[in-house]
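G.,

No rush on this.
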Amino acid sequence: MNWILFPVVIQVFVTCVRASDKVFWYESPAADGMNEALPIGNGRIGGLVYGHPEKERINMNDITLWTGDDNPTQDYHGPGFGDYQTLGSLVVDLPDHKVNTQYKRALDIGDAVTTVQYESHGVQYKRDYFVSHVSQVLVGRLTADKGKAYTGRIELQDAHKVAVHAVDNTIAVDGKLVNGLRFAWKVLAQHTGGSLKVNGTVIEFNGCDALTLIVSAGTDYVFDDSKKFKSGEDPAVHVNDWVTKASIKSYESLRTEHLSDFHSLFNRVDVDLGQSSAQQTALSTDKRKVEAVATFDPDFEEMFFQFGRYLMISSSRTSLPANLQGLWNDNNTPAWHSDYHTNINAQMNYWPPETVNLAECHLPLFNMIRSQLNVWRKCTRASKDLLTPLGKHVTKGVAVSSHNIYGGMGGLDGDKTNSAWYAQHFWEHYAFGMDKTYLKDVAYPYLKEVSELWDELLKTVTNGTKQQLGKLVVPHGWSPEHGPHEDGCSYNQEIVWDLYTNYVKAADVLGVDKEFRDRVAGERDRLLWPGI
């Protein structure tokens, strides 16, 4: 299935979600790649479920697993920028299940649970998967309508060729990336009936009635530039703790706490566009998508609105914010590094949280930005692409281009107003929540610092029409993916206007920095307006 974070944004607020169909379902397993696999996640740990009966594969992610560093050369294509990495795959081999009928795989976005069902050799099989934010584990439950139905093996296929260890009913992986970031992940298998044993680096099970799989992962990434964003601590300690604590709970308890946590966010909002026909709702999702092109399918449109909210909850909780692929990644060299692409993509991911009642999901973006400011300041001061009208390096403010999780960015010769566009998100969170403590401690300092950058950089027009002379423009600007560099691109002008407007409002709310506030207001009024 193809997915982006928010296919559509509609502002509708109610106290609970209707019990209408919120299930994407298919009649065949997912193909290789990311387009058809079903995504589950808790904001940090992600899984792509492929749903093959004879060989289940769940591609695993931890959103903090990145190569690269602070990239002082600002080479977007060099090793210092790095790439978002995959952990690898959890694989469950069930060779006797190759022949099967009545196949169905589904993602219930109302519960954040994905399911695989089929019949093989007269037995009805079912697998349920979810990722618990409460317990910080992915949970899988394999059941059947007859006893002794499960025989096969479990393995972890690590994507970084590090040591894999299997002991008792667990398989564990721990290692380091080339940049020194430590990582670990682990699966624990519980069985009802039959037997289970370790054979080399795999777990073999025979004649089991049911299986529960508990998986967790972690790295030593921290929001601390003084430590180069790495704590040096062994992430296996936390991973073992999460897995052990989850294993003490029953599957029913793990599922109940997951549903309660997820529903507390998801069930805040509903949208009603009408009622689809019985013929429409009877179709599998891939077929329904084709039919919806020609015939309006209101429930289907509602599902895609809610799918955007589902992806936001699943990829942006208390760790890093959603990246270019949200949380999910199936290889170690993803397109555009799966980075934080700041010429629209990172911001576009975060347009909806406030309007779809997921304000908490906005916070990881602010936490990441604030943690990287010291690195960005150094790059800003040193950049030859950010010179004042007098040809001097800037002394204040902060700029950023597309970046990784260590503060490393690409060059600043392209879109210079990205940090100002980020500033819009800081203000929007205040505008919806009206939390003055947040405004004072979090939003205002960032708004002011970015405004200080443009106070130094804006250029006065000295050669132009009568309407242009004396106006202020962004020098050597660029509208992303549209044409050459030039002074006063409409895109850049509008973003700086928005930054200045929000800064003035923030200063007025807090009653601070009147001299600088008035200076910014005056510069805003002198900005050259877009023309045709």
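When you get to it, here's the other one too:
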Amino acid sequence: MPPIASPFVFAAALIVQAYPLCAGNQVLRSFPIKASQGVAVDGEYIYAISNTEIRKCDKVTGAAVTVWKADTKRAEFKHFRHLNSGTVIDGKLHCAHSRFPVAPNECTVEIWDVTGEKLDHVETIRMPPTHGSLTWIDRRGDGTWWMCYAVYGRAKNKETKLIHYRRENGKFIEEKSHRFPEEAVASWGTMSCSGGSWGPDGMLYATGHDLAEACVLRIHGDKLEYVRTEGGVGFCGQAIAWDRFSKEPGLWGIVKNKCVSLTVITAAKGKS
């Protein structure tokens, strides 16, 4: 995947220089696409996610293909308020959604058919209002589903949970929950975990709200453990997505309302 030179690549490179924690990471491309919450990716497209809008763009050029906006006057979309992240599985874009801040515990998984050039909303799955604000969803390489429920505030964000689910009869069934390690929580400040994506090395890469870094975590026994922090990335917090359709171990992310970028994470090479 060749790099694409643009002023936004250079801007993302300045972020890398400011956070040189991990040598060798490379911002491969960056597009001036506005997204306030995060990005998802499949074989041909990227999905720039904002509160009530998703922009489907060509993965190579950044050109917009189609835009979906929630028409909150319609009954089926009136609950839309705060889309957070997305992952594309088998031609379906799955997005985490909450009604934060008006009703933080009211959470749903929203699903779109994204085959070809489609971006058609097809399903809403309501989650139990018991854990916090749903900020991200992803499926690990072994087929297990994972969701993160954020709790905000410096005194309370340690209550943020990572929950393992199984998918059964169109529902998500809770299996096990984990708390985040102290090293990750400390990096959030007063915020919480905004993004997470399972990497080709089997590690969980998790982001906070605004720092240009990702905490690398692993499940060890019954615990979620801190491994390292990856800097030198072209994004600043928010929701991220591993490109599972590329030969390079690339991690997509955003600089809020400025650009969408792809960073090659050197440490993840050859570990899929």
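The chain has two helices and 20 strands. The longest strand covers residues 103-113.

Enjoy the weekend,
O.
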